[in-house]
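A protein record in our archive is deliberately plain, so that people and models can read it alike. The tokens are whole numbers drawn from a learned vocabulary of local backbone shapes. For reference, a complete record is included directly beneath this paragraph.
>
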Amino acid sequence: MIVVSSPEQAEALLDAGQLGCPGCSGTLRPHGYGRVRRVRSLGGEPVTVRPRRARCFSCAATHVLLPAGLVLRRADTTEVIGTALAAKARGDGHRTIAAQLDRPVSTVRRWLRRAREPHAGWLHQQSVQHAYRADPDLLNRELVWPTTLGDALNLLAGAALACQKRWDCPLPAWTLIGMFTRGRLLPPPLRT
């Protein structure tokens, strides 16, 4: 799975032969599409997506090109899940968050459980790396939330806003956060 900022950009890179295989550094070529999915967005209509698939010309491995606004194997966008995690970091409970987002309580509870350690620690590592690249001064500021998850989200948001400002990036903050976390704002669901 490769996270891309937008399907249009990924398609252009694939057509030009400029997208490399993460496994062997070969060139990726178009290789059909994944299945059509409906993903719930924040307060709006569901988004219909059909992720692009690509195949390496050298090693024959296939990869799915996941738009950064989505989370791997989740039926909600990065913005929805990120909003739930931010509410949890503020101290809201899963029932309150579920009511605010109009999502099932069991779904929100699962998200919040998956965002605990060790994943919160991994998110924090990603946030420090991207905050340092975007604006090292972000690491010197007083953090608002006294939890690992809260610190991680705070730094990821700061890095996203610094990228938007510094490089005049038109992507929304949650899409950038999706890029920073490589589609893993939450770890993939456990298979049962």
User: Anything to note?
Assistant: Residues 2-67 form one domain.
